[in-house]
Design goal:
The chain is α+β, with helices and mostly antiparallel strands. It binds zinc ion.
């Protein structure tokens, strides 16, 4: 359910972009989200496929998902690290804060623009 509302928000955003660009169709969409976002890639794809059926703008559009690996930042030394051996900073042994790899981000949208001389 979470994914469906995210996909809806993403499509609304892209619709606005498409109007601005005077685009007729969306060719491809690149989004990224991180391990901490809680977004399921499969559910996200599924929601997009379901939603785009009712939207001519998105007909045939391809969705590319980039997963951003989770990392932590140490509040003491500022070091950022992959939490491979637990969430503690490898230098200070204090618990780090999740950094990056968070919310959904639209990285790139490729549009098919309106032809000018048809
Ligand atoms: Zn540290």
């Amino acid at each position: 359910m979470h994914e469906a509302s995210l996909v809806l928000a993403m499509c609304e955003e892209i619709k606005r972009l498409a109007q601005k660009e005077r685009a007729r169709k969306v060719i491809s969409i690149v989004v990224s989200f991180g391990e901490f976002s809680g977004i399921e890639e499969e559910a996200f794809r599924f929601a997009f496929e379901a939603l785009k059926k009712g939207l001519p703008l998105f007909e045939g559009a391809r969705l590319f998902i980039e997963k951003v690996p989770a990392h932590f930042r140490c509040p003491w030394c500022g070091r950022s690290y992959r939490p491979l051996e637990g969430p503690n900073c490898p230098s200070c042994q204090v618990p780090g804060l999740p950094a990056g790899g968070g919310e959904l981000e639209i990285k790139k949208v490729e549009f098919l623009l309106e032809e000018e001389n048809v």
